[in-house]
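Q: Is it fine to ask for two folds in a single conversation?
A: Yes, each is treated on its own. Send the first.
Q: Here.
A: Result:
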Amino acid sequence: MSGPIWKKDGAGKGPDAAVMDFLAGEDVVLDRQLIGFDITASQAHVAGLETIGVLSADEARQLVDGLETIRGELASGERVLNAAFEDGHSALETWLTEDLGAVGGKVHTGRSRNDQVAVAMRLYLKDRLARLAGTCMETAGVLLKRAAAEADIPMPGYTHLQRAMPASVGMWLAGHAEAFIDNAALAIATRDWLDASPLGTASGFGVNLPLAREQVREQLGFSRLLVNPQYAQNSRGKVEGQALSALAAATTDLRRVAWDLSLFTTSEFDFVSLPDDFCTGSSIMPNKRNPDAVELLRAAHGVVTGARVELDSILSLPSGYQRDLQATKPPVLRAFAAGLQALDLLPGLLAAMEWNTGAMEAALSPDMFATDLSVELALEGKPFREAYREAAARIAGMDAGDAAKSLSERVSPGAPGALLLEQLQARLAHLETILK
């Protein structure tokens, strides 16, 4: 490579190697995740240039085919995006020029690396948010299937980590299912919110060409244009932040499920047994069977939270493109890689874990039925506060309660006696049609 694509002849020597290394940062490595989207956007841009007469049909065909060849060679390892280039955008232009000669150099007509990276990031985020939604829906599906099959299994319910009232396995499963249905809905809504094409806004000022932006938008599958060139630059970081928020909602619930399972698998609880696939041993203690996978699932949210803070700290910027925006890329790619890797494990874990029904029933102490008693006394006509005090006074002498009766009579909508699983299943089915 003769030098950066922005290098001008006779314009001075430019930055030295150390400064260039600093300027490039992680771009080349990170762009390995984005270059496929960059190729797709470049092919659409070429088609647009042909439409307005900047490229001939033969030139456009050569460029589109050349880009597809590069895609295949990157996938096979025959071609590698490495430190010889500033970034993936530079690599594509350089490779096309090497392969096609002067025609290759025409690919960048009418665009800037600014709108080039912006469109690649939006395509990436749409892809990852769709994957996030799909994983959340798969998780919810596993939970709802088990909730229907295990609806009436009693287990203790907790507040403040203290035994509170009899609950059911069905309610625990359905509660987490509803959370992941919400997470899927949020991921889809976020995908649709950022579904706008910035390609054709160039460096933030437009270009003196009648670019076929609508045609390119449609070819890339965006639902609308990102109209204003200035906003195309100002939106960078903003859309990434919203995408991270959707991811964080899912990893928050992932962490909560993992925390529950971490507690339930302890000897003190002994409510759940995890499959061997999710456990390891100790290097020194032969007796240990550690739920390491569950513990690391808890940790995944920390990566996402750190990325959100890192991203937000960069965005105190004036209007227009600033090189600081390059630094928004690493936290976003890092967070989606870690978050989706963790979330992808959850459906299998939830499908394979086993309940210890005996331990859960044994943990239902008589005092946990006091709330049921207070409601029963209120139904007899006593003011609730009086019924509450009477139930409290009778706790010491209470016998073991009937868990099955307690659960079946808890019929407020959504409670163990009326889980409304069909409503959750209908929401999930609706989201599946939207995602398709």
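Q: Second one now.
A: Result:
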Amino acid sequence: MSTPSTTALPDGGLRSPGAGLITLDPVHTALLRGLDDLLTGLAARLSAPEVLGPPLLSVEGLARLDFFRNFPHLGVSAGRFDADALDGLAAGETPGELGLRPTGHLLPSATCYGLLLSLEGRDVGEDGLRLSATGRCFRNETHYDGLRRLWGFHVREVLYLGTKQGAVEHLEQGAEFIRQAAASLGLELSRAVADDPFYDKGGSRAKLMALDPVKHEFSAPDGTAIASVNRHRNFFGERLDIRAGSEGPAYSACVAFGVERWVHAMILTHGSPEQALGRLREARLRGVDG
């Protein structure tokens, strides 16, 4: 099997067909794929099998997880054209002038939502359950900024459900892996409590996070958050009736990596996509612990 080319496109760089939308050239694509492969090392370390989440999430399911109470501004809805618009489309009418009908589904804004919803009513046992997945995620934003802030992007997550202590250990191991991965790639990251984009900053969830932070972010020198460790308590376990044996509602936690943002951080640190790709290849030869 031949090795895919990583030669830059003739006019070079990233191609943007619209705000928040980017087509990666071969070099950037190789960097993104290689970084995602390296970041799956956490999944291997924690024996978290790879799964593939659903491409759409039900509005009803997200409502039960308080998504719309907390992030109504981020949701990207999936629609279909009304039946009476089909003749117009076939005749060449402008799609933007024809009616769309809601489907009752949103595009995912985070990888873990689909995985959690698929586990509703399950008992993961006291030994717990770990899963790993990369998903294409979508969020409406007030502005977009290259690879730092996109309308659609990839998020690698390693999810845990089980006991309270198991969730703590999952996040500790995840944070250590982030530090090791960053060191192997030559990245300097800072850790801080996250400031999530809650719609109502004075709402109960935002206030609770301020009093008891459940999310910490790891950021590049320019302030771009490229990874996070997230403690869900037993919120999803209670809402979705996911149990951990005799422990009751499962506690959950996830470690998340914004893959395009890792690409951004690598180029920021190493100066060019080609140099960043070279450093990534060296890191993969050595291994994260090298």
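Q: Anything structural to flag on that second result?
A: Two points. The longest strand covers residues 152-162. The chain has one domain: 15-55+109-286.
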